[in-house]
Amino acid sequence: MPSLSVVSAEPLAGKTTIAAGLEQKLQTLGRSDVVITEVRTGDSPAAESGTRVVVVAAGTTPAGDLDAFSKSFGNSAAGVIVNRVPRKRIETTRAGYEAAGINVLAMLPEDRILAAPTLGDIAAALDAEVSFLNGNRLRPVERPLIASISADPAQGYFTRHGATAVIIRSDKPDLQLAAISAGANCLIVTGGLPILSYVLDRAAEDEIPLMRTKLDTIAAVHEIEALFGTTPFAGGEAKLRRIGELLSEVDVSALI
Prior knowledge:
By secondary structure, this protein is an alpha/beta fold. It folds into 2 domains: 3-112 and 233-254, P-loop containing nucleotide triphosphate hydrolases (Rossmann fold), CATH 3.40.50; 117-225, Udp-n-acetylmuramoylalanyl-d-glutamate--2,6- Diaminopimelate Ligase, Chain: A, domain 1 (3-Layer(aba) Sandwich). Helix content is 35%, strand content 20%. It contains 10 helices and 10 strands. The strands form 2 sheets. A 5-stranded parallel β-sheet has the order 2-1-3-4-5, with helices on both faces. Strands 6-10-9-8-7 form a 5-stranded mixed β-sheet, sandwiched between helices. Helix 1 (15-28) crosses helix 10 (237-246) and helix 6 crosses helix 7. The longest helix has 14 residues, at 15-28. The chain starts with a strand and ends in a 10-residue tail after the last helix. The relative contact order is 0.16. The model has no long low-confidence stretch (mean pLDDT 89).
């Protein structure tokens, strides 16, 4: 049975994300017979006949180190996917790796959706009480926004910034309603006070997830900031769709 092993020389390179994207592409080709295995950093892929190895690397990996690591798999090496490269450096990074003799399968840019934590990640980090989360735990939060101080211009403020979640104090119910009216699709309510019933009713009506944390706003923001680019890939429609788009240049049929 043909198989692909996805490996990296360093942790947090994005193996799980790449493996999920490759599996999607194989399914669209009707190749459900191909087994994809993510190999833990430091381990060696199974040396089985028909296994090809895809190396995942961060764009900061020195070309010499990446070349040596890739060549260590001999004829099993299918090539390298370089992940999270700053968009302004994509062409120079590609040129440097190719000049070193590295077979670059794809050069993936840094991406806000893939780096973003999900609602479930944030709820866990904040130890939050959640309402109306339903099936939205895997929804990425790309643009969290701290609510304004003043209530009067709040709705325009929320609309202008296009937040995917609004961080807002629990003693500001008018701002909470303004955020919902402006189209915010999640409220992260800080300070630990109960959310008023009319805000709960409006959130339930629009199916807006609410998270209530005892942390104050500054502490909550620090916790959320620490999640970007560090949380394990957990799937979800938006992230799976995005990695599929980014891997569009990879000819998976040539890897197996």
